[in-house]
Write a structure and sequence with these properties.
The complex is a heterodimer of chains A (about 220) and B (about 220). Chain A is of the alpha+beta class. Helices cover about 50% and strands about 10% of the residues of chain A. Chain A has seven helices and five strands, in the order H-E-E-H-E-H-H-H-H-E-E-H. In chain A, helix 3 crosses helix 4, helix 3 packs antiparallel against helix 5 and helix 4 crosses helix 5. The longest helix of chain A has 30 residues. The relative contact order of chain A is 0.17. Chain B starts with 10 loop residues before the first helix and ends in an 11-residue tail after the last helix. In chain B, helix 1 packs across helix 6, helix 6 runs antiparallel to helix 7 and helix 6 packs parallel to helix 10. The chains are: A alpha+beta (about 220), B mainly alpha (about 220). At the A-B interface, helix 1, helix 2, strand 5 and helix 7 of A face helix 2, helix 3, helix 4, helix 5 and helix 6 of B.
Chain lengths: ~220, ~220
């Protein structure tokens, strides 16, 4: 009987893992981040819209990891003034967070009534108070609007109308086209158009490292 | 005398004693550790294989930066998982490594095959662990597509832990597998009874093959 040595088995496993770790990414180089809509003035942009690097985030307001990731992206804009623009796109996953699509519509209502500053203030406040996992009371939505300085009545009228549902759905379609497997999903776009897709709420150090690489791609 | 005690011992003691018997040998510790490291790294790197591919193929990026990214992504275990998911993601590779090491030990020592149930429990645990790891990001890399395919994606919203239950299931299945193999290791080689149980006294005289020889 051929009795292989467990040492050899372990070494073979290490080698197989090393080959996998290097070969899989190398083979995937042709399709880095799917086909994403380009950043335009239609987008919600935080920071310098003309920044050389764009970080496009697809997020779900009821995703706990998006809530956790939100401050990291705020920090990116602060740490790279003028160099990195944060672009927010809607990706509510209704299958697991049925309340999220309406919350995303609420952020659009905030933008309609108060412009970009109101959109970002509303998003910041929403993430700050939501317990995540679909546990935000919908009654909080107009209260958040008031908190960021919007009038409650027109906000409620906007939310009831559902007129921004199509906009949210467009972003969801874009997320799927961009290859987002879940949220948060961030695509860092270098000045030369090269893209780096970050899946999940990765450590801030990972974001910095990838942004620094992207900034070098002229 | 059986150094491992008898099957009347509690399950925890059986597992611990069998685990010590296997893992006191450096080769099996190395095997278990190698499997644990490989599975854990895969769980943390594979969701970002496209990022790694993009960085590794970008011209002019230093090797140090590439290796640094690999190391930093391991920190995703803290930043990218809830408490339950992080615990199950860290525990599953360790249990899977121990499970495989015990299976290899048993197969080599006894030159015997394991029942399908023992193998199935181990690999079922690893598979459900892989599905649970997909829950690292909301929406999951594996679980949601799988559930969507069978039209049950909405069921995730009903789970109190949002799918992290699979991680606990994988831990349970791996512990079951380890217990089953530990029982085999704890029992000394015996003449096995025939599948239909002990032969009755009345039948014994006419029964010519009451059992099989030990391996």
């Amino acid at each position: 009987m051929n009795r292989s040595n467990p040492h050899r088995t372990a070494i073979r496993l290490f080698l197989a893992a090393a080959v996998l770790a290097l070969a899989v990414p190398a083979g995937a180089q042709e399709e880095m981040a799917g086909i994403m809509e380009p950043v335009t003035p239609r987008d919600h942009i935080r920071g310098n819209p003309a920044a050389p690097v764009k970080l496009v985030e697809f997020a779900d307001t009821e995703c706990p990891l998006c809530k956790r990731f939100h401050p990291a992206l705020q920090r990116v804009v602060d740490d790279y003034p003028g160099k990195v623009a944060w672009v927010f796109r809607h990706f509510p996953i209704a299958e697991i967070h049925p309340k999220a699509p309406k919350e995303h519509e609420a952020t659009e209502c905030a933008a309609e009534l108060g412009g970009e500053p109101a959109f970002w203030a509303y998003l910041d406040r929403l993430y700050a108070i939501t317990p995540s996992n679909d546990r935000l009371d919908p009654a909080e939505l107009p209260r958040i609007a008031q908190h960021v300085g919007l009038d409650r009545a027109p906000f409620e009228q906007c939310l009831r109308s559902g007129r921004h549902a199509a906009r949210v759905a467009e972003d969801v379609a874009d997320a799927l086209a961009a290859g987002a497997p879940g949220t948060p999903y961030s695509v860092i776009v270098a000045p030369n158009g090269r893209t780096y897709a970050v899946v999940g709420a990765q450590p801030y150090a990972a974001l910095r490292l990838v942004i620094d690489i992207a900034l070098e791609q002229k | 005398m059986n150094p491992m005690g008898t099957l009347e011992q509690n399950p925890g003691r059986i597992v611990i004693e069998a685990g010590i018997e296997v893992l006191r040998r450096p080769a099996y510790i190395l095997l278990a550790a190698a499997i644990a490291v490989v599975v854990l790294a895969a769980a943390l790197w594979l969701p970002n294989y496209r990022l790694l591919g993009a960085v590794f193929t970008t011209p002019g990026v230093a090797l140090g930066a590439k290796l640094q990214l690999l190391a930093i992504l391991l920190g995703g275990l803290v930043s990218n998982f809830g408490v339950v998911a992080a615990v199950s993601t860290a525990t599953t590779p360790v249990l899977f490594g121990v499970d495989v090491a015990m299976i290899v030990y048993f197969a080599k020592r006894r030159r015997a095959r394991l029942a399908r149930g023992e193998i199935a429990a181990g690999f079922g645990g690893a598979a459900s662990g892989a599905l649970a790891a997909g829950c690292a990001a909301c929406g999951s890399f594996l679980l949601l597509p799988v559930l969507s395919f069978v039209g049950a994606a909405g069921a995730l919203a009903l789970l109190p832990l949002g799918g992290a239950e699979l991680g606990l299931l994988s831990i349970g299945l791996l512990l079951l597998s380890i217990y089953l193999i530990a029982r085999k290791i704890a029992v000394p080689p015996l003449c096995e009874l025939p599948p239909d149980g002990p032969v009755q006294r009345a039948d014994r005289e006419s029964h010519t093959t009451p059992g099989r020889n030990p391996p």
